[in-house]
Structures are given as structure tokens and as C-alpha cells.
């Protein structure tokens, strides 16, 4: 729909094909074992992810419309998503699609796959995905199947990172090629060209780093949230990226972009980075 190409090709992990079955007819997988096949499952997450209460507000993640923010008030468009988590605060219609907190490493290992070498992999730990690149290494992980809903999908990633006194950056990919890094990738990017602040944020696109702005962070550990969404505007696509470092005010960058097939993912360039949560909303 809306001109967005999706890649819903199932990725088969350790699927044994009987000898009497044609090799071009492969079984559909159900990675989270919830009885819903992945191609039609709106939330490929574990039961523990759904039952957790990550913001300690007494509401389980699967029912929480703002699962990483405690006691949120204010809902300007009245769609049930508090403004702090609502990607379109002046337009109703957003709804909770999925929360992933990576509780089960076994599921994370089949759901989040490394991009082709020479990039390095992320490690699945109980409650997080983490990458610790060495030297000038880049680490990328991409969802094994599309996480997009039927219309405009928004991803909010909850990160922590340390620069280790190295320049580098973090990207929340809205669309990324799972096999190799290509100029067609689109995402929300934060970087620092030195080991000191400030950081530059913006939308990374096939035609460059767009709508650049600056945020400040400390030399030690930092908290980072990146929220990114794609919406069609006529025959083009608007990418909107929102960045919050260390609970500062939200800074937003936007850019009109061409869009190629791909899937949601995350890259860290030289920084020790942890992804502890992913909240996905959709506009049906």
C-alpha cells in the first residue's frame, strides 16, 4: 500500500524439509510460538516481553500505549497513544502494534540477523541486544522478517551507549538492505565526528544526511531514544526522526526520501551500544 515495497519473505531457521517434499515448498515459521505464522503475526515477541512492565506503571507491555514512559499524560489527538509516544500528535489513528524487550535470547537470535560481513554481529542477552565494536568496526542487526504494519509504521528504539572516546554513531534503520550496506538505505542517524559533544542528528538517505541538528551528550554512558516513521506524501515518502538524549527535549528531523525494499534494523559505528526495547505503532 501507499507505494511502500515490503519484504515479507520468510526466513527459515533450522527447518528440515522431508525428502518427499518439493524443496521450493518450505514451511512457514512461527518464531515466537504463539500459534500465529510470522507473515501474518503483527508482533513477533515472546510471552515474557508482552507480560513485562518495563516502565513499572502497573500496565503490561502488550497493553501499554507508552511502555517506556511512566505516568504519561496528554493525548492531543485522542487516539489513546500519549503524546510522548505518539508519532503524529495532531492526527488520530495511531495504535499499539508491538513491544519487544528481547527477554528470550533464543528468539532474538533467530529474529535479529547480522548484515553480511565485514560488519560484525550484535549479541542477544536476556533483555537486550548489544554490540561492542572494536577499532573501526561497524555492527548491524536487521529483522529477519518485515515488522511493518498495514500503513504508516513507527519504531521507537530505547538505547544506551558509551563512546569509549571514539567518534562514531548509531542508526535506527527504517528500511535497510539485509545483505549488504547500500546507498538506498533510509534511517534516523546520530553521530559525533570527535569523542566529544555535540552529536549531529538527522535523516540518512540515498542522497545524503538531511536536516542536520545538534544534541549534546556526556563522555560517559548515555541514554538515547530514536523514534522513526515513514509516511507517503503524494508520490514521495516523508521520513520523520525524533531523538532524545539523556531525557533532553525531543529534537526532530525530517526529509523527503525515495524508498527501496528493506527491513527495520540498527547499526552502531564503533560505539558500545545496547538496544533494550523496541515499541512499534501503526496507522491502519
Please explain how this structure is put together.
By secondary structure, this protein is mainly beta. It has a single domain, classed as Sandwich (Jelly Rolls), CATH 2.60.120.200. It has 2 helices and 15 strands. It has helices spanning 47-51, 105-111; strands spanning 95-100, 112-114, 123-125, 128-131, 138-143, 152-162, 168-176, 186-192, 199-205, 208-215, 222-233, 236-245, 251-257, 263-269, 272-283. Strands 1, 3, 4, 6, 11, 12, 13 and 15 form an 8-stranded antiparallel sheet that branches. A hairpin with a 2-residue loop joins strand 9 and strand 10 (208-215). The longest helix is centred in the middle third of the chain and has 7 residues, at 105-111. Mean pLDDT is 85; it is low at 1-25.
Structural topology:
Layout (H helix, E strand, L loop, with lengths): L46 H5 L43 E6 L4 H7 E3 L8 E3 L2 E4 L6 E6 L8 E11 L5 E9 L9 E7 L6 E7 L2 E8 L6 E12 L2 E10 L5 E7 L5 E7 L2 E12 L1
Antiparallel strand pairs: 1-15, 2-5, 3-4, 4-15, 5-14, 6-11, 6-15, 7-8, 7-14, 8-9, 9-10, 11-12, 12-13
CATH architecture: Sandwich
- How many strands? 15
How many angstroms does the end-to-end distance come to?
11 Å
Poorly predicted regions are 1-25
H-E order = HEHEEEEEEEEEEEEEE
Number of helices: 2
* Largest β-sheet summary: 8 strands, antiparallel
Q: Which secondary-structure class do the elements indicate?
A: mainly beta
CATH class: Mainly Beta
Mean pLDDT over the residues: 85
Question: Any idea what the radius of gyration is?
Answer: 18 Å
Percent of residues in beta strands: 35-45%
Helix content: under 10%
The fold-level CATH name is Jelly Rolls
